[in-house]
Write a structure and sequence with these properties.
mainly alpha, 2 domains, Arc Repressor Mutant, subunit A, Tetracycline Repressor, domain 2
Length: 229
């Protein structure tokens, strides 16, 4: 009986491990599809890229690609879904941390990471608004982001913060998003070069943006310290 139990447990562990491995492969394939699709969209344009070309560069059949994404629109939609999933994870982390200046700075630092790692996607979406988005799509994304913005603000300021502190926290979040998307670039851009002739590298940009965002929210935590003392 013990031997049978051992064999059953071993079989369950093997099946459980196989399921996780299979799930991991699915996730890896999905990420590879997104990466290759983004490359092709940048190289030859969204409209001129087909699912067949994406599948060919990946070295898979079109049917295999369909398993993950039924259309180019599905791939583009997945970029936004993944971004919001990361924001939701950040919010969950922040809600489990004690309200403090350190928590606010760490939250902004993590938000910078999310924004910088999604920079290529954001630039693609911004440059292709006319072909891949309607006004309704943009409104829907803002509607999805708004409750998340409120949650991030409350983690930074606390739920009972005055309007001044909440506005400064929102400005810090917008400063991160705008600065990372605007000043991160892989290739020369004449319009950006006119604004920033000698752009910083990625690490330096991160430091500058975090410093600016932290300065905006520091006012709130200075006020809290004065109240305590």
């Amino acid at each position: 009986m013990a031997e049978q139990d051992h064999e059953h447990a071993h079989g369950s562990e093997h099946a459980h491990g196989s399921e996780h491995a299979h799930g991991g492969r699915r996730g890896d394939t999905r990420a590879r599809i997104q990466h290759v699709a983004l490359e092709l969209f940048a190289e030859q344009g969204y409209e001129r890229t087909s699912l067949r070309e994406i599948a060919e560069r990946l070295g898979v059949t079109k049917a295999a690609l369909y398993y993950h994404f039924k259309s180019k629109e599905d791939i583009v939609r997945s970029f936004t879904e993944d971004y919001f999933a990361r924001i939701d994870a950040l919010i969950a982390w922040g809600r489990n941390e004690p309200p403090s200046e350190q928590t606010a700075q760490e939250l902004l630092d993590r938000y910078i990471t999310i924004t910088m790692e999604g920079g290529e996607v954001f630039r693609f979406l911004e440059r292709n608004q006319a072909t891949i988005h309607t006004a309704g799509d943009g409104k829907q994304r803002f509607t999805q982001f708004r409750p998340r913005l409120i949650a991030l603000i409350e983690i930074i300021t606390g739920p009972a913060a005055p309007p001044r502190s909440r506005i400064r926290a929102a400005a810090a979040i917008f400063a991160v998003s705008t600065s990372c998307m605007f000043f991160m670039k892989e290739t020369p851009e004449p319009e950006l070069d006119a604004v920033l002739p000698d752009p910083p590298d990625r690490d330096e940009l991160r430091k500058i943006v975090l410093e600016a965002a932290t300065d905006l929210v520091a006012d709130r935590h200075d006020a809290i310290r004065h109240q305590v003392t």
